[in-house]
Every structure is written in structure tokens, then in C-alpha cells.
Write a structure and sequence with these properties.
Elements: H1 16-28, H2 33-53, H3 59-70, H4 77-92
Length: about 90
């Protein structure tokens, strides 16, 4: 038996002009207004999340990043001390 999906309600006050526009757009796509609005909001949310989480690099930055991965710099003395301290802390636990 499939699990029941839960739903939540979203309400918004919009202008009559926007309401008419949404209704017309939904009709043009052969959808209900609710289906049209849900799809539009979901697309907008996914784009907003992607823009916040995906890092886009220029070609030069991509090459610099790849080079750093392929040939990482030697650890500095401070980094070596930090690793040594971390190893001591992990052994103490």
C-alpha cells in the first residue's frame, strides 16, 4: 500500500490583474489554475535553490581549480601543525 502524501496549504493575496493573467496562462496550457501556479512556483523555487548552491566558474577559474587539484601546493608549516594537532586529538578520544 503506497504511503499517503501530506499536503500543506498556501494562500496569497494577488491583484485582480495578476489573477486574470494566471487564469489565462493556465487556460492556454490546458491546466487548472492551481496546477499552473504550483508548477510555476516549483520551477522558480528550484531555480532559486540552484542559483544559491551551484558555483559557476569562468574558463580561467575552471583551469586554475583543475590545476590545484592535479598539483596541490605543499602544505605550509601551519597546516602541518594543524594536522598533527588533529591527529593527537583523535587519538585522545
Amino acid at each position: 500500500m503506497p504511503a499517503a502524501s501530506s499536503t500543506a496549504r498556501l494562500e496569497a493575496r494577488i491583484s485582480t490583474d495578476l489573477h486574470s493573467m494566471l487564469k489565462r496562462a493556465a487556460e492556454l496550457q490546458g491546466r487548472t489554475m492551481t496546477d499552473f501556479v504550483i508548477a510555476a512556483v516549483q520551477d522558480a523555487a528550484q531555480r532559486a535553490i540552484e542559483q544559491a548552491e551551484v558555483i559557476r566558474l569562468s574558463l580561467a577559474d575552471q583551469q586554475c581549480f583543475a590545476q590545484a587539484l592535479l598539483s596541490p601546493p605543499q602544505p605550509t608549516p601551519a597546516l602541518e601543525r594543524a594536522f598533527a594537532r588533529r591527529s593527537r586529538l583523535l587519538r585522545a578520544e
